[in-house]
Amino acid sequence: MEIGWWGVLIAVLGGAIRIGTPFLFVSLGECLTEKSGRINLGLEGTLVMGAMTGYAVSLHSGSPWLGVLCAGLAGMVLGALHSWLCSFQRVNDIAVGIAMMLFGTGLAFFLGKPYIQPSAPRLPSIDLGGWSDIPQLQAALQINALFLMGIVVAIALAWMLKNTAWGLKVRVVGESADAARALGLPVDRIRILSTAQGGFLAGIGGSYLSLYYPFNWSEGLSSGQGLMAVALVIFARWHPIGCLWVSLLWGGAAALGPSLQSVGITGGYYIFNAIPYIMTLAVMIITCSPRRTLVGVPHELTVTR
Amino acid sequence: MAASPKLTRRQLLKGTAAAGALGMLGGLRWTDQAWAAGKVKMGFIFVGPRDDYGYNQAHFEGKSAVAKLDWVKAFDEEKVPETIEVQKTMESMVKLDGAQVLFPTSFGYFDPHILKVAPQYPTIQFLHCGGLYQEGKHPKNAGSYFGYIDESQYIAGIVAGGMSKSGKLGFVAAKPIPQVLRNINNYTLGARSIRPNCTTNVIFTGGWSLPVREAEATNSLVDQGIDVITCHVDSPKVVMTTAEKRGIYCTGYHCNQSKLAPKGYLTGAEWNWAKVYMDYADMIRKGQPVPHLVRGGLKEGIVKVSDYNQVVTEAVRKQADAAKDKFMSGGMVVYKGPIKDNTGRVVIAAGTEHVQTDMWLESMDWLVEGVIGSTKS
Amino acid sequence: MPQTLNKALEPFLIIVGSLMVSMVLFGVFVASAGADPFEVYQTMYRAAFGTTFSWQNTLIRAAPLMLTALCTALPGYLGLIIIGGEGAVVMGGLVAAIAALAIPTAPPMVVLTTMAVAGMVAGGLWLIIGGALRHYRAVNETISSLLLNYIAIAVLNHFVTSTFRDPESLNHPSTHHIGEANMIGVIPGTDLHWGLVLGVVACVIAWFLMHHTVFGFASQIAGGNVRAAQIAGLPVGRLILIICFLAGAAGGLAGMVEVAAIHGRANDTLNANYGYAGILVAFVARNNPLAIIPVAVLLGGIRASSGLLQRAHELPDATVLVMQGIIFLVILFSETLYGRFSRLQKQGVS
User: Fold this and answer.
1) Does the pLDDT of residue A291 top 80, yes or no?
2) Fewer CB within 10 Å: N-end or C-end of chain B?
């Protein structure tokens, strides 16, 4: 079927979901972590570790969903390690994040060598495009349950942060550690838990890459999805629902480059492929202002001080 | 030549190897070191991981094959960037491992790195994959080897063109460089040789290993109606599995990827580096001079075509096999005029032929008529 | 006297202690992977510091890291965390090559000087973007500099494959060659190019600037407390811009050296992750430009040993990544120990 330029639209729609889902998980993880007043730049390592673990477990157990769970657990361990180290005085969370990035990717590459060759069972997909008789649209709407779970997690996280005692604690700790201590809250423990949970989500994001799309474990799998989480969370104003929109937007923008080439816009693809980064920077420039602090920003965050 | 000190040294080497063999026969125990001294020591350098289901793996398989020979000691290093690091890796292999011959397998290793290091070690052979050795311009102890994998791509193109329903093929490519363009053109020419209105839609990802973008490119191409796809990136794994998921055919590259796409993997263009490395090892053992330029295709056994999938019809097999036979007999000329590029310019005039070994083809910067895409970035 | 001695001794003891702890941790790691840790360390020592060749291998890898570490270390004095070294290297290298190609007939010294200035200005301006956005728009500099890295790499790739591409650079799109005569040579008697000297000199100058001039003092005040600095009448905005420019200039110089000493052209190999490695060097050196030199050498040594580890022990290349990760985590963790020893000692005395 000839679809021509509609193909770009469909690719952007499909890409938003396909490419956006791992961004959704890492940004939700980073969002929770940052709400507690920590920044974890090491999510890149967590994501890669999650991708490797998920693939390996899926291969050995035959169950991709078990792989997803284990990927989350691996991410949790790395997240906990990050925030445990940062709970000591004068240990800089950004620096530790970069070291964790090195450590996580190194460990994943080291342990992942035997898993590059074999093919692990893939996560199943759900057809949401059955109503349409356009095959391209059907393919674009073939999605993975993890995407739906990501939406649920985003909504749940938003609700939790706003309405539960735990959410309030996280926000107080992120707003002012001194105030939290005065209230008798265990600041370090809350931060460790938040970062570990954030790591869990990032690990799942990694398993999406290796077990669903692009479905592959290799050392070039991640192209900085984990690193970008930090930018996405600022973009999303530290709001989980915002993370959802921003991830979709990012995914769509990343799909734009290849799809333009498929309809014959061949020039400047390096620049087209950099659109997501340019877009994020532009949005930050437009929305930030020295005269007011951003809405939703946790004041304990190193990057905002 | 026979009187040169280099050759006598080699003959000496050959002598020790023979002595080693005799020692074995006599039931003497040789220490590892003594054995190693008589071995041909070959160092391999890869730009990516050894097992990428693609470019580097193809070379690693070649290395593993020579490493099995008991008179060869082969060692390798993976993920060596094309910076000063590769210069140091080469020197380190020579100085610390006693390498006699080095195989830096990435294109970017040649200029400036091999050109800088080779003159410093005149007794060591630096054999580079993909480069274009020029007598007089490049060091005497350097050389380059490459395979005409575009011959296999031509045959894969025939199979793709024959099996396609829409007559639209897809190609996910890394960068618009001669080696890649030649594959795209051969694929297209192969398909058009049996189906003149066939087109190939190309997407350049801009990098050698970008899994997400490769998957996205595949999806976009499928959306545009292509129903057979191939690629030229370092690891074709993602393109193959994505094509299989979308229910279209694919043809492989570098290695055999039929396991990744059992239903749709029609055939593929594969390297057979084992042959090249065995030949080199043999030449060095025998003390023969190593040629500066080694090239070869199907006929020489440097490249292969994957076994056809069972879905490939009898008629298509016949057409593909006919072309293969022609390559094997040396009678095939792919670039025979008139050939136009995809902007309508005549690049090869009627009556002109560029045979496979013609170096003109190794600086290709155009896409043949029927390719949808552009060499400009 | 003993107190000043303590002050000097403390960091030394802490660093040595952390290195030993991380060596034990890494030893356990390789042992669990089935290798003999003692042999592994022996191999690493041999490959990094064991022979003249090894030393040169280590130093040549350390050279760019000294410059890129300054990209993060200098803004650190102002309390800014800039991780845009990669972008500065890439822009510096690209612009330096273009500058050299613009004056094809000039004598080598002129070409090299032009390249250095062009590279430094390009890198400097690139990082100024991050600093300016921070100061005038309150855009977080860590994130903006990270995004700028990706944009710089896209710009580099775009131009070397289109506008500035040498059509002869067949399978590896690059700019034209700057000319053999214009290449930076090696330090006599060694295999090392002069980039190493530039790195060391840059670190020493940076240290002098930040610790022995009014400018450096003002920067440290502004880094400690912006409000206090503003009350004292310090031009905080100008300080930010100047420091970011200097930081980027160091990165740009690293890019220029890559082009002028190694490749002769600008191409995608400029994006060799020296910028990212520099961030770690800066953090471990606690932003002190003098400390950057030994830390860069240490990291260079670890990287130099990667090859022999692969060949002698059949360990994957990722082994050294794990080792770097462990060392840096332990050293960063050891930050918390500063001041504790002297306190302990005082308690012991009283």
Assistant:
1) no
2) N
Contact status of B202 with chain A (Cβ, < 8 Å): yes
* Residue B366, SS3 per DSSP: coil
Q: What is the Cα–Cα distance from A245 to A280, expressed in whole angstroms?
A: 13
Closest-CA distance of chain A to residue C201, Å: 26
The answer on pLDDT for B5 being more than 60 is no
* A111 vs B contacts (CB less than 8 Å): none
What domains are defined for chain B? Answer: 5-148+273-296 (3.40.50.2300), 149-269+308-372 (3.40.50.2300)
Which among B77, B177, B362 is the nearest to C311, CB-wise?
B77
Q: What is the pLDDT of residue B253?
A: 95
User: How many beta-carbon pairs below 8 A join chains A and C?
Assistant: 141
Closest partner residue to C57 (CB to CB) among B76, B82, B92 is B92
Report the gap between the CA of B52 and the closest CA in chain C (Å): 14
State the total domains in chain C. Answer: 1
Q: What percent helix, strand, coil does chain A show, rounded to 5?
A: 70, 0, 25
Residue A94 with chain C: CB contacts under 8 Å: 81, 142
Any domain includes C11: no
Domain assignment present for residue C333? The answer is no
Element (H, E) at B170: strand B168-173
Which structural domain range is residue C62 located in? 57-315
- The reply to whether residue A113 touches residue C316, judged by beta carbons under 8 angstroms, is yes
Q: What is the pLDDT of residues A218-260, one digit of tens each?
A: 888 988 888 889 889 988 889 999 999 999 999 999 898 888 8
Contacts of C311 by beta carbon, 8 Å cutoff, 6+ apart: B75, B76, B77, B93, B97
Which B residues, 80 through 109, put their C-beta within 8 Å of a C-beta on chain C? 80-85, 88-89, 91-93, 95-97, 107-108
The residue type found at A172 is V
Query: In CATH, what class is A6-304?
Result: mainly alpha
Calculate what percentage of chain C has a pLDDT beyond 70: 95
Is C308 at the interface with chain B, CB within 8 A?
yes
Tokens of B301: 């056994």
At residue A302, the pLDDT reads: 60
B22 has pLDDT over 80: no
Q: Tell whether the model's pLDDT for residue C45 goes beyond 90.
A: yes
Of A136, A263, A270, the CB nearest to B377: A270
Task: Pick from A264-278, B284-298, B362-376, C250-264 the range whose average pLDDT is largest.
Answer: C250-264
Confidence check: pLDDT of B53 > 50: yes
Higher pLDDT, A303 or C137: C137
Among all residues of chain C, which has the CA nearest to that of A273?
Answer: C154
d(CA B75, CA B73) in angstroms, rounded, equals: 7
* A5: its two tokens: 């330029």
> Could you give the CA distance from residue A208 to residue A122 in angstroms, rounded to a whole number?
10
Asked if B210 is an interface residue toward chain A (Cβ–Cβ < 8 A), one would say: yes
- Domain of C173, CATH number, reads 1.10.3470
Tell me if C70 is assigned to some domain. yes
Tell which wins on pLDDT, C190 or C210. Answer: C210
Q: If you average pLDDT over residues B47-55, what whole number do you get?
A: 88
Note whether B177 contacts C171, CB cutoff 8 Å. Answer: yes
Residues C245-294 have pLDDT tens digits of 999 999 999 999 999 999 999 999 999 999 999 998 998 898 999 999 99
A140 chain-B contacts, CB cut-off 8 A: 223
What was the pLDDT predicted at B57? 92
Contacts of A254 in chain B (CB under 8 A): 212-213, 216
pLDDT confidence bin for C115, thresholds 50/70/90: very high
CB neighbour list of residue B357: distance below 8 Å, 6 or more residues apart: B295
Q: ipTM of the assembly?
A: 0.90
Strands B303-305, B265-271: pairing kind: antiparallel
User: Cβ–Cβ of B84/C311 closer than 8 Å?
Assistant: no
Domain positions in chain A are 6-304
Interchain contact, B223 vs A116, CB within 8 Å:
no
- How many CB atoms are closer than 10 A to CB B301? 15
Structure tokens at A10: 């469909």
